[in-house]
Amino acid sequence: MQKQIYEKYGLRTDKIENVDGYDTFIIQNYLYFIVPAINITEGEMMELQQMSSYMLAKGDAAVASFVPTRAGTIIARIHEQPIVILRSHIQPYTRTINIGKELAKFHQRGRTYPYYVNYCKRIGQWKDLWGKRLDQMEMFWRSKVQMHPENEFERMFVDSFPYYLGLTENAIQYLVDTELDDEPYTVDCATICHQRFTERLWRQGAKLPTEWVYDHCSRDLAEWVRYFYHTNRLLTAEKMKSFFTEYQRITPLTTFSWRLIYSRLLFPLHYFECIEGYYLAREEEQKKMYEEKLSHLLNQSGEYEQFLGNFYDLVELPANRFSLPKMKWLSFS
């Protein structure tokens, strides 16, 4: 790979290491990330490059920039696969960041982004995207029911899907009611967000624009909660309160924002990604991992219902005073 990188980019490196799922290398004071570009269109890439330049210009030194090829393009092909290379300045010392505060500042900068976004735009599209994803999986589920499950994973999928179909329909209805009943404020305008925000994304001190979309800030807040819940359930309450407290010291959230967060937590994204991941996996080891993950999700579904039913209380939000509707069926879980 080093030879192809030199041919395409003119960058010489003797050592490539895997860091948090990315191949990386260091030249002088820069950390370079080799990022697969299989699922990112050229239009999206151009918008992400513009967002990256803007956030750097606004003073976010942790944002990685795109490295052009010798030919002046963003995307290169190495071993017949499209890739981009991003680079981030290596900090002279490790900085401990307050994730809630840092995310609020990131969103604050992103809200002032002045350019039109087309390909990376997700704001206002959740209902259609969720509905489409549900319809596709329902069709696939029906085919599996007719053919009968072939293994333990498919049996779990066939048995569990009706429950998650209902949960998804509840999420869509909660979202629709929010858009009908509540009024967005200035803070609810689109900003630069992440596909799936977790603390791991910023662990290396670099913010990779290939992870970004243009959406409502609640996307990142909800996905942080989802990831944290499924990896650290025992510590959820205090950590969540601290996260939202720090975020709101920079940007207080509106009732519209809170309701979007809740609707996104209702949407069982973790389930969809588990099912999709299994059927996209090529290696038996990967399939086994998804089978174990699905079994764990199903075993913990009752606990997740309780978590959803108590969410507003866990973050110490007076739901009644703010007229935040709760899902009644979750209150009895």
From TrEMBL:
UniProt keyword annotation of Nucleotide-binding present: no
Name of protein: Spore coat protein YutH
SUPFAM superfamilies: Protein kinase-like (PK-like)
Alphabetical UniProt keywords: Capsid protein, Virion
Cellular component GO terms, alphabetical: endospore-forming forespore
Organism, scientific name: Paranoxybacillus vitaminiphilus
